[in-house]
Amino acid sequence: MTISSVWYERDTRCIAAHQQPASLVELCLSRGIDSHRLLRGTGLFLEDMPKAATQISPQQFLTLIDNARHLLDADDSSFLFGQRLLPGHHGAASQALALANNLQQALELLGELRALLSPLLSPRLLLDEQYAYLYWLDSCGAGNQQRFLLESSMTAVVAMSRRLGGEHLPWQFHFRQPAPRQIEQYWVHLGEDLHFNRPYDVLRLPREHLTRPWPQTVQSTAQVACQQARQQLQSLGVEASLLDTLQRWLLRHIQLAPNLEHAAAALGMSPATLKRKLQKHDTCYQAQQDNIRLLVALYLYQIKGCSNDEVASHLRFHDATNLRRSFKRWTGQTPSTLLSLLRG
Question: SS3 breakdown of the chain: % helix, strand, coil, rounded to 5?
Fold first, then answer.
């Protein structure tokens, strides 16, 4: 079955320059960064940033982030940027977030409106009986900007929950990256429950915090804001990125062990075209499939309590030995070693 959703790609102009990009520019200018150096290679001019009609591509935004990182050259840059992101200044989408009934509704809206609120990283909320897990998947081939985006995105969610809920929550942070040499900014902006060299980038929170009512909610106003936010997403003309669309299709079909040809057919293009588009995003089909296999394996191990044989069967591995071999290639650790860390 062909996927009916409309996606954006790395070179699609779909990000409002006066929103998140402008926030990053303002942060840089406040620290004395020269605007010409900051915008070099982006194809943008400073006077265009405040204009509502100016749309930029993910590639332009990533170039802006790269320039900002190098020019600011400060450990707190990503965290300060994250403080500005949510609910943000995205019109109805931000109003819907600000009027959410509770944290769960806010996180569900963040996922639904990700093309507006998180265009470069895709958040995905999963729940088990005890915890909520907010995973972050690369939407546009972030490359060297991945760490900056993760730090700012996680900071944005934590700051939003504190601002709208009025309390500090016991978030736990998992990063794929090694522990940074300068960890103080993580402590200041995120907290001390930090875990590095983990298989996925994820926020974890005890589930009981999700449904505590937030004080600013007015039900009727919140419903109207959500309707307007969905209209805003519809008017954008795209619902998610190409990588995001592929990842979610893989999640639904991973039990069938789909190959490149199956995915291309579902996306309505030839295998050669899909391969070329993935290369444009600095990735390949095998890497995307392995990422989703790992995510599903972790879900089955940690949340469903499945055995090695059950996970191997679900993911269409020949046997548990092949699964363990692949798992070690994906993460550097065996499933049992990794799960003992995750449960610690």
Answer: 55, 10, 35
CA–CA separation, 318 vs 9, rounded Å? 35
| Least reliable range by pLDDT among 65-69, 110-114, 126-130 | 126-130
Q: Phi-psi bin for 174: left (phi > 0), alpha (psi -120 to 50), beta?
A: beta
Q: CA gyration radius for the chain?
A: 20
DSSP H or E run through 122? strand 121-127
Distances (CA, A) of 338 to 44, 152, 198, 315, 330: 45, 26, 8, 18, 11
- The region of weakest confidence among 55-59, 132-136, 159-163, 309-313 is 309-313
254 in Cβ contact with 293 (< 8 Å): yes
pTM: 0.94
Residues in the chain: 344
Token pair in block for residue 117: 């609120």
| Three-class SS state of 137 | strand
User: Would you say 274 and 263 are in contact if contact means Cβ atoms under 8 Å apart?
Assistant: yes
Cβ neighbours of residue 273 under 8 Å, at least 6 residues apart?
Answer: 264
